[in-house]
C-alpha cells in the first residue's frame, strides 16, 4: 500500500511484494539460509534493557535479577509480549497432523516471565478422535534460555547449526520433551523430534509491523515502535522422530499412543505479538499445506479500527525444498484471503468459513472443522463477562484439517480462522 509523505498513520506495515518476482530478486525480504536468524526475538538483552539472570519460583514464574533497578525496567517498556515458536506437521501417509509450540510471555518489560508447551494432534480425515489432543503445560525449573536454546526440567528446544548441503537444509531443530504430569486428556507425553529446516524468509528489515499510540507521518524513513507484530517463516522442513502419550479414556483408564514420524513435511513459524491481542488484530487467517512436492504457508491479520483497519497478508510457495514464490499485500483485495462460503455460529454469532481461498491460487472448498476453541472459556465467569463487556472481545478459534490439492497434487492442509473483536 503506497503512502504519501503527508499521510498520517498509526500502523506501519511490511512492504508489498509481488509474488511473480523471482525469489532471489526482491530487496523487500531477506532469505534465511542459517539457523541464527531463527533465534528468540524476546531474548534480546538490548531490547529489554537488563542482563538476563533468572530465578525460578515453584509455580514457574521467573523473576528478573539483572543488576538494574526495577523502576528502570518498567520505564524501559511497559509492554506485554508473547512469542511462539511453532512446528506444524502433516503426515501424508497416516493422515495425522498437529503442532508442537513453545510459548514465551513477558509482562511489563520482563518483571514476570513464563513459558508453556502447547501440543495439538488430530486426523485429516474421518471423525475418529482416538488420537485427538490439545493440551498446554506450564513449564517450571527453566535452567537455560539462550537465543537458540531453551532448557527446562522437562523440555529442550534447540536449534542446531547442522547444515546438509546435499539435502539443502539450513540447520536443524531438536525438540525433546518428557512431561509425566496428567492434564485433562493425556499423561506421560514424550516428544523426541529432529527436524531438518530448509530455506526461510522474513520481511525487511526484521519482519515487524509497527503500531503507534499517536499518528505519525508516513515517510520512507525507518520507523519503529515497542508495539509490534513480527513473523519469521520456514515454509518447509522434514521431521523424523517419535511422539508418545497415554490418553485418558471415557472409563478413566489410559491407552498408550505411539506416533512415528518419518520424513514428515513440516512448517516452522516464529510469531511475536507486542501488544494486547484485541489491539493487535480483530481477526486472523492461517494456512499450512504440504504435498509430496509443494508447501504453502500463509498468514493474514486485520488491525482494529484504532490502528487503521489494515489487512496484512504474507504467503509463500515451496517446491521440493526450495522457495519458489514469496508474496505480501496490504489492503489489496485481489490477494487477500476470501471466505467463499460461510456458516454462522449460533452461540457467538461469528461468521466462520466453510470454503476458503488463499493467495497463491490455493483454495479449499470442503473445510473440515476439527476444533472450535473458546479462548475465554477457561476463565472464571466474572472475568469472562468483564472481558466481553469492557474490552468488547469474544475470541474464538476455528481449526480445520483436510485432504487438499495444489496444482493437481494431493496433500493435507491445516487452516485456522480466528475472530477476536
Automatic annotation (TrEMBL):
| Primary localization class, coarse | cytoplasm
- Where in the cell does this protein reside? Cytoplasm
Which ranges carry the Svf1-like C-terminal domain?
277-421
Supply the alphabetized keyword list.
Cytoplasm
Family annotation (InterPro entries): Ceramide-binding_SVF1, Svf1-like_C, Svf1-like_N
- Signal sequence region: none
Q: Name one Pfam family in it.
A: Svf1_C
Q: Where is the Svf1-like N-terminal domain?
A: 82-273
Family affiliation: Belongs to the SVF1 family.
Q: What is this protein called?
A: SVF1-like protein
Question: What organism is this sequence from?
Answer: Saccharomyces uvarum (Yeast)
Ranked from the top, the taxonomy reads: Eukaryota, Fungi, Dikarya, Ascomycota, Saccharomycotina
Amino acid at each position: 500500500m503506497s503512502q504519501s509523505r503527508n499521510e498520517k498513520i498509526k500502523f506501519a506495515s511490511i512492504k508489498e511484494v509481488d509474488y511473480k518476482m523471482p525469489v532471489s530478486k526482491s530487496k523487500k525480504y531477506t532469505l534465511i539460509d542459517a539457523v541464527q536468524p531463527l533465534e528468540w526475538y524476546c531474548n534480546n538483552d538490548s531490547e529489554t534493557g537488563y542482563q538476563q539472570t533468572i530465578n525460578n519460583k515453584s509455580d514457574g514464574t521467573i523473576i528478573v535479577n539483572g543488576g538494574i533497578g526495577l523502576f528502570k525496567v518498567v520505564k524501559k517498556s511497559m509492554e506485554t509480549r508473547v512469542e511462539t515458536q511453532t512446528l506444524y506437521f502433516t503426515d501424508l501417509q497416516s493422515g495425522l497432523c498437529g503442532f508442537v509450540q513453545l510459548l514465551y510471555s513477558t509482562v511489563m518489560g520482563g518483571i514476570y516471565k513464563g513459558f508453556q508447551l502447547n501440543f495439538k494432534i488430530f486426523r485429516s480425515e474421518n471423525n475418529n478422535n482416538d488420537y485427538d489432543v490439545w493440551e498446554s503445560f506450564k513449564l517450571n525449573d527453566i535452567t537455560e534460555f539462550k537465543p537458540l536454546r531453551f532448557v527446562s526440567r522437562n523440555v529442550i528446544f534447540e536449534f542446531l547449526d547442522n547444515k546438509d548441503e546435499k539435502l539443502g537444509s539450513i540447520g536443524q531443530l531438536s525438540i525433546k520433551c518428557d512431561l509425566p504430569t496428567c492434564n485433562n486428556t493425556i499423561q506421560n507425553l514424550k516428544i523426541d523430534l529432529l527436524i531438518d529446516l530448509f530455506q526461510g524468509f522474513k520481511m525487511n528489515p526484521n519482519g515487524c509491523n509497527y503500531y503507534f499510540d499517536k499518528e505519525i507521518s508516513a515517510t520512507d524513513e525507518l520507523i519503529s515502535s515497542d508495539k509490534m507484530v513480527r513473523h519469521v517463516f520456514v515454509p518447509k522442513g522434514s521431521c523424523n522422530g517419535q511422539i508418545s502419550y497415554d490418553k485418558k479414556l471415557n472409563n478413566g483408564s489410559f491407552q498408550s499412543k505411539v506416533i512415528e514420524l518419518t520424513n514428515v513435511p513440516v512448517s516452522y513459524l516464529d510469531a511475536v505479538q507486542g501488544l494486547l491481542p484485541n489491539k493487535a488484530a480483530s481477526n486472523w487467517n492461517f494456512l499450512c499445506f504440504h504435498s509430496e512436492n509443494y508447501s504453502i504457508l500463509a498468514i493474514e491479520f486485520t488491525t482494529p479500527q484504532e490502528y487503521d483497519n489494515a489487512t496484512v497478508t504474507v504467503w509463500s510457495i515451496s517446491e521440493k525444498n526450495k522457495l519458489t514464490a514469496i508474496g505480501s499485500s496490504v489492503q489489496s483485495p485481489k490477494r487477500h484471503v476470501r471466505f467463499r462460503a460461510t456458516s454462522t455460529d449460533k452461540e457467538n454469532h461469528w461468521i466462520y468459513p466453510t470454503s476458503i481461498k488463499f493467495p497463491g491460487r490455493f483454495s479449499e472448498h470442503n473445510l473440515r472443522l476439527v476444533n472450535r476453541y473458546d479462548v475465554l472459556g477457561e476463565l472464571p465467569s466474572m472475568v469472562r463477562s468483564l472481558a466481553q463487556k469492557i474490552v468488547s472481545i469474544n475470541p474464538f478459534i476455528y481449526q480445520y484439517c483436510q485432504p487438499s490439492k495444489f496444482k493437481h497434487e494431493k496433500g493435507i492442509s491445516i487452516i485456522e480462522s480466528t475472530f477476536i473483536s
